[in-house]
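Quiz preparation item.
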């Protein structure tokens, strides 16, 4: 329910007004659930593409967002929470929010994995100076996708659809925030 409310607020441009959308989970149980969900999402990515582990081993960091909720009708938005790994070690919580405008209708849930190839990109993410422009798109994870990753500004993005149906021809961007443990 919180994810739906956060997505709805992103749609209306008011996401910063809801405390439930904060980067860090509020309770120990929520933190534990998020970590378990991150582990499951990462395992799902690795199962879908056996070349992913070697890409993660070469990366300076990566962020995993399990169960990003996305919805829209003309205007759209997404919201999800995750965890950031620096050289393979969990270092903090992160969240993403996205706003889009254009021809779109529907709702879906997906996992997102962002791989940072260089330290500068990871540092920008940690400092809250990281956002995706409309022209950077995610690659649907499948066998061999990570091995042929196309990095843009030191970053590659992969999605794994979990459910729902979304049709869109829209533009927008993703914004991220990070909170160290």
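Solution:
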């Amino acid at each position: 329910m919180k994810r739906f409310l956060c997505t709805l607020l992103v749609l209306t441009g008011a996401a910063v007004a809801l405390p439930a959308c904060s980067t860090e989970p509020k309770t120990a149980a929520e933190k534990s659930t998020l970590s378990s969900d991150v582990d499951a999402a990462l395992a799902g990515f690795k199962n879908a593409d056996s070349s992913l582990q070697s890409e993660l081993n070469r990366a300076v960091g990566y962020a995993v967002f399990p169960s990003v909720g996305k919805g829209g009708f003309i205007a759209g938005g997404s919201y999800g929470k995750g965890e950031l790994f620096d050289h393979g070690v969990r270092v903090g919580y992160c969240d993403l929010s996205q706003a889009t405008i254009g021809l779109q209708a529907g709702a879906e849930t997906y996992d997102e994995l962002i791989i940072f190839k260089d330290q500068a990109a990871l540092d920008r993410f940690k400092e809250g100076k990281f956002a995706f422009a409309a022209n950077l798109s995610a690659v649907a994870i499948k066998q061999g996708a990570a091995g042929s990753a196309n990095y843009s500004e030191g970053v590659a993005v992969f999605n794994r659809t979990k459910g729902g149906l979304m049709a869109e021809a829209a533009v927008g961007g993703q914004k991220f925030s990070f909170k160290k443990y």
